[in-house]
Amino acid sequence: MHGADPRLVLGLHRSRHHRDILTAALDLGVTALDTAAPYLGFRSHAVLAEAAADLLPKFTLSTKVGFFPNAGGTEHSLDPVRLRLGIERAARELGREPDTVLLHNPERSLAGISPADGHALLGSACSALVDAAREGLCRAWGVASWDPRPFGVIRVDDLPSPDVLMVRAGFLVGIDLLDVTAVLREVWKVGETWGMSPFGGRHGKVWEEFDPRPFLRPHHGDLSRAQAAFRTSFHLPSAAAVAVGTDDPAHLAELAQALTAQVDTAAVSQYLRALQAHRQS
Questions:
Q1: Taking the mean position of all CA atoms in its chain, how far away is CA 143?
Q2: Could you tell me which of 96, 121, 122, 238 has the fewest CB atoms within 10 Å of its CB?
Q3: Structurally, what CATH architecture does the domain formed by 7-211+242-280 represent?
Q4: What is the value of pTM for the model shown?
């Protein structure tokens, strides 16, 4: 399990993209920023450049491609030409090349097709991102998946290995997703795992009913339950970084403070065994 140097990433999903949260992040030493082409109604990249062009060089920046606007709203595509154009557009709108480009929820296009067709479609999409990185449009590439289970029927061991696999993390992730992630990153020879959505969009009642602080070592009574949930999410699954969306500098400061806590990995292992046993019962 990952234990050293956990990284907090400021995610911009549902964010207002205001400059104050970016300056607060830098003041706290949070220098990783994650966005995606469709965020803020497909205006995320342009609004970031307009509001904080001078700040963006201070961040390592990741973005995602795979969703595209159409006349009725949004559509998903793994077409390599569209992906390439999306990466080029992101760099233009941001005024700089992103450090990492992630294939955004590829399962949306993989669900319901044969494993052979899925393999070919995913392979061509990955190759488009590999080429983009090779040609300097980004430094690294990867995959961001909200639900990686469709990958379970696709052979990935002969596809390009992503530098990053970004998946949901934390106590609200089920054991099926955790198991699929563990197998996928081993078979696919993933470089780093990043977590996202550690609170599952819920900051309130669930943490009133469940106290995750016993998963810290020693028991940190000085930290809130949300802080403990966030810190433990780096081990569910084991991840080098976790992205959290917030427009509240105080909340971001609380999460940054939680990084100093240590996780009781034995307690996490016991928790995972309990989930396995419950599934099999």
A1: 9
A2: 96
A3: Alpha-Beta Barrel (3.20)
A4: 0.95
